[in-house]
Write a structure and sequence with these properties.
The protein has seven helices and seven strands; from the N terminus they run E-H-E-H-E-E-H-E-H-E-E-H-H-H. It is α/β, with parallel strands linked by helices and 225 residues long. Strands 1, 2, 3, 4, 5, 6 and 7 form a seven-stranded mixed sheet that branches. The radius of gyration is 17 Å and the shape is globular. The relative contact order is 0.19.
Length: 225
């Protein structure tokens, strides 16, 4: 049953097919799936969204799907390449759309664990981007997992066949982070079900149309959460 299975949504990557950031995201989701979670991926072309405008009354199909998937998620994983010392504009714009959930049953990332992965061609950019992702998760009221992962593509990469990172220590960190997302999501869902089964089920919209009826289209992306 849905109430006994958590959903983990991965968001990130770049417009380049098979990017390292997307490969990292897939590696985390693969581990989450092996742990029994239902996983969803929003990456690459799915993130080519119009620039977020809080005054826009109608969202694109891609934006509506992004918002709906986040609203329904029990846990999240974010992955971004390091662009000039910070997250990419593609990922930042996707996260700006989360403002549409400011008046949801669970506003923004409330009550959800969020794993963060940053990828750069060097440690400085990767670590700075990881810090930016975690700061954004805090601002969106999410709970960053204790472990976040920075990957330096100048030193290692993903095997195109196995999907594993060539540095086994960092592959282990990706898998451990996936475990933290799934474990926390399960504990949170169990606690919610124990306190109010009906309320727990109501946190998962059955369709994008239902979500749209709950979330106002006009939102202020600059508002502090």
């Amino acid at each position: 049953m849905r109430q006994n299975k958590v959903t983990v949504v991965g968001i990130g990557g770049s417009t380049r097919a098979g990017s390292t950031a997307e490969s990292a995201l897939r590696a985390v989701l693969a581990r989450a799936e092996r742990l029994g979670a239902e996983v969803r991926l929003i990456a690459g072309p799915d993130l080519r969204l119009p620039l977020y405008d809080p005054k826009e009354a109608v969202r694109s199909p891609q934006a509506s799907r992004l918002i709906s998937e986040i609203a329904a998620a029990d846990g999240l994983v974010l992955a971004s390449p390091a662009y000039h010392g910070g997250m990419s504009g593609l990922v930042k714009n996707a996260l700006d759309h989360v403002e549409e959930l400011r008046e949801d049953v669970r506003p923004y990332f409330t009550d959800r664990p969020v794993g963060c992965v940053a990828v750069g061609q060097g440690w400085q950019g990767a670590v700075a981007t990881l810090a930016a992702l975690r700061d954004t998760v805090f601002a969106l009221r999410g709970w960053p997992t204790p472990l976040g992962v920075a990957l330096n593509t100048a030193e290692a990469g993903f095997d195109p066949v196995s999907g594993r990172y060539s540095d086994e220590r960092l592959q282990g960190q990706l898998e451990a982070m996936a475990g933290q997302v799934v474990e926390f999501a399960r504990m949170r869902r169990a606690a919610t079900l124990a306190s109010s089964p009906a309320a727990a089920l109501s946190t998962t919209p059955s369709s994008a149309a239902e979500l749209d009826s709950r979330v106002p289209a006009g939102a202020d992306a600059g508002r502090s959460s």
